[in-house]
Please model this.
Amino acid sequence: MKSAIITGASSGIGFAIARELGRNGYALTVTSRRQDRLSLAADRLRAENFIVEDIALNMADEEAAVKVVARHEERFGRLDVLVNNAGMGVPGELDAVSVKHIDLQLAVNLRAVILGYRAALPLLRVAGAKHGNALVVNTASVTAIRPEPLMAMYATTKAAIVGLTRAMNLDLGDAGIKSTALCPGRVATEMTSDQHGHTAPEQMISAEDVASAVGWLLTLSSQCVVPEIPFLRPGNKG
Ligand SMILES: NC(=O)c1ccc[n+]([C@@H]2O[C@H](COP(=O)([O-])OP(=O)(O)OC[C@H]3O[C@@H](n4cnc5c(N)ncnc54)[C@H](OP(=O)(O)O)[C@@H]3O)[C@@H](O)[C@H]2O)c1
Model:
């Protein structure tokens, strides 16, 4: 049975992607920091008859990626899809952002993705050699390609994810490992719940919209690589 790891899967985009992968027959390892919310999310996925392992981790920790891959391998023995989705943003003028918050965004949004590749590559290489269609999905953001006000640090980390994704396609293509960066504008999740004053959730992209793109990626032949997917709102809004 094919299997996938999804980070930041207790809510929002990560949860929707986990559900999409479950519906496509993948066994799932899901992670996030808060065990109570992760357990609830994992139980919701199990209620749909998906096979689910959950492990609570902070992706800012250096050892997190190694731990999640080890737990996944112990339970499922193979890895076909890695979804590096956990992320966070601290808005503000750059001269008002603390070094702590700069480091945190770099650690969660960028370093954890690099470490995720490193930890998962041995298993992804096996899957790539077997079927030529191992997949890494990295949740970037539309801010990677068109900045939003007061999100410079966040946009920087997400632009780096787009760059990393392109570089990984170059280095891992011959190993049958493809990478895609998802670049959504505003998605109706907890992350944007503070924006409801000016943008109602109904005016935002849905987490399911983004997840359905992952379902589509799974249908592509091994010869088709999609390096990034932008998702905009009507009127070219991010
Ligand atoms: N919503 C948007 O408009 C939007 C647009 C573009 C891109 N994105 C990106 O989409 C991704 C998912 O965000 P979302 O909108 O779905 O928000 P969300 O509903 O708040 O989900 C974030 C998920 O990541 C987990 N998480 C956060 N920090 C973590 C950490 N340090 N270690 C492990 N897990 C962590 C959260 O659980 P815990 O808090 O319990 O850890 C939760 O499961 C992020 O990378 C975000 O940057 C969002």
In short: The chain has six helices and seven strands.
